[in-house]
Amino acid sequence: MAMAVANCCFSVVTSTVKFRCCLSSQRYLATSQHSIASVTCKAVVNRRGSPREHKEGVSHKKSPGKPKDRRSSLHDEDEDGISGKRNAQKSQPMAFKSSGAQRKDKKEFKFDMKEQQFEQQNLKDAAFLDAVVKVYCTHTEPDYSLPWQKQRQYTSTGSAFMIGNGKLLTNAHCVEYYTQVKVKKRGDDTKYIAKVLARGVDCDIALLSVESEEFWEGAEPLEFGHLPRLQDSVTVVGYPLGGDTISVTKGVVSRIEVTSYAHGSSDLLGIQIDAAINPGNSGGPAFNDQGECIGVAFQVYRSEEVENIGYVIPTTVVSHFLNDYERNEKYTGFPSLGVMLQKLENPALRACLKVQSNEGVLVRRVEPTSDANRVLKEGDVIVSFDDVHVGCEGTVPFRSNERIAFRYLISQKFAGDVAELGIIRAGSFMKVQAVLNPRVHLVPYHVDGGQPSYLIIAGLVFTPLSEPLIEEECEGSIGLKLLAKSRYSLARFKGEQIVILSQVLANEVNFGYEDMSNQQVLKLNGTQIKNIHHLAHLVDSCKNRYLVFRV
C-alpha cells in the first residue's frame, strides 16, 4: 500500500472535475493481493446456518454474504456427495447373516462362499470410494463496492479425490477466496490442512496437496479413463447435502459437446449426464463401469422445464490442466484464437465472399490483443484449422459420425502453441500461422489475486470495472452506457482497464460531488487513463495546480 499526502481544491466544469494540488492531500493505492483458490462446482455453503445455492456453484454451509446473480443458467455445485446406497452398505446385512449362521450342511456352506465373494467385491468397492474425500473451506470474499475491506467469512463443503503424488483434484469454485482448506477421508474423524497448488478458473479445476503422511496411509489414487460414449453408465460420488457420509448416484451419458462453464465463463468440452448432482458434489469424481474416473462433477442446469441435467468435466480437460501445470510450474489457462466468428450457412453470403464450397466460418471481429490480429482480417473465412476442415456451421469432425464446435480444436492447444489456419481472402486461398494465448478481458470475470485494486484521492474512490463489481452494484446502478461497453468492447492492449469513479466519500474537500458514482474516468489532465496503476502514476507525477478528471 502506497500513501501520499496532498491538499486538493475542487471545481467542476460540465463533466470535468478539477482538483487543486498543494502537496498535502491523502492518496491510498492498494494493489491486488495474490491468493489461490480451488473449488468444486457443487459446494455446500453455510451462511447464518441456512444453506443456499449460487448460480456459479452450490455451497454447503455459508456465513452471511451477498448473493451473486449470474447471467448463465448453469449452476456450479460445491459438494461432492450423492444420494444413494453404497455396495458396502448393502453387504452389511448379508455379512451379519452369515456370521450368525451356525448350520454346517452343504447348502449352508455354499451360501457362505457366495457371501465371501460378495464381501470381497465390496472391499474392492470400498477402496474405490476411499479415494474420495470431503473438502471443508473457509472463504473470505472481497467487497468490490468497498475494496479496502473484505466481507464476513463463511464456510462451505465440497468434494475432492486423490490422483497420486500427494495431490488431490477438486473444483476451483470450491476454494474461491479461500483462507483455509481442510480435507477429511472417508471413515476418518481427523481433518487435515490442504494447500492449494493451482487453480484454473476457466476450467473450474483446482489442485490441492496434503503434506501429512498419515493422511496418505493406505491411499490408492484413482485412475483416469477415456472419454465415454453416449449411453455409457456413469456413477457420481461425493458429499452432497442430505447427510455427512459419502453418497453415490448413477445415470448415463446423455451428451458430449462444447459446454459453457458457468464459473469460468468459458466454453470447453463437457459431459452431460442424468445422474443426480447436488450441492456438495462439486469436485467429486464420476466413474465408468470399469472403475475409472471419467471426469469431475461441477455444475447442473436448473430450470422448471428440465430435470436431471448435470455436467462433468471430462478427463481431456483435466489432463490439459495438469499438463499445463507440470509444463509451467503454474497454471496459465486455455488459449484463445481471439476472433469473433459467424456461420456461413447462407448461400448468398458464401457467394459474396467468393467461397465456392460449403465450408468455413466468417471472421467478424479480431481482438487487438491477440496474435491473430497480425494475420487475420475482418471478412476472412477460416476453412481449416491444422488441416482439419471447418464446416459452414462452425463444426469439425469428432470421433465417428459426430461433429463438435470448432472451439474444441482450439481448446486442445496450450498457451504459446502455433496453429495453422487455412483461410479464403477475397476469393484466394492461403495459409497463415497464429500463436494462441489466453484471452485478454477488458472487464475480467475474476480478479487476479482475488483482491481488487483501488485508489482514493481526496475522498474520490477509483477502481477497475469487473464483473464481480457489476454483480455487487447491480446492473441498473452501473448505467447502460458503461454496461454496454463492458459487454461488447475489446481491450486495445494488454493491461487496459476501465477505471471508474465508484463513489465519493463525503467531505468538505469534495463538496458538491457526493452524487457522483459508477462513472468511467477517461482522462486526467488531458492524458488518457490506461489502468488504475497508470492513474496512480499520473497523480504522483502531477505538477499542475489542479487535478482535472474527465468523466
From TrEMBL:
Sample GO molecular function, one term: serine-type endopeptidase activity
Basic and acidic residues: bias regions: 50-59, 66-75
Residue ranges, annotated region (Disordered): 47-104
InterPro entries: DEGP_PDZ, DEGP_PDZ_sf, PDZ_sf, Peptidase_S1_PA, Peptidase_S1_PA_chymotrypsin, Peptidase_S1C
Keywords per UniProt: Hydrolase, Protease, Serine protease
Location of the Protease Do-like PDZ domain: 443-550
Keyword presence, ATP-binding: no
SUPFAM superfamilies noted in UniProt: PDZ domain-like, Trypsin-like serine proteases
GO BP of this protein: proteolysis
Family designation: Belongs to the peptidase S1C family.
Name this protein carries in UniProt: PROTEASE DO-LIKE 2 CHLOROPLASTIC
Organism: Salix purpurea (Purple osier willow)
Organismal lineage: Eukaryota, Viridiplantae, Streptophyta, Embryophyta, Tracheophyta
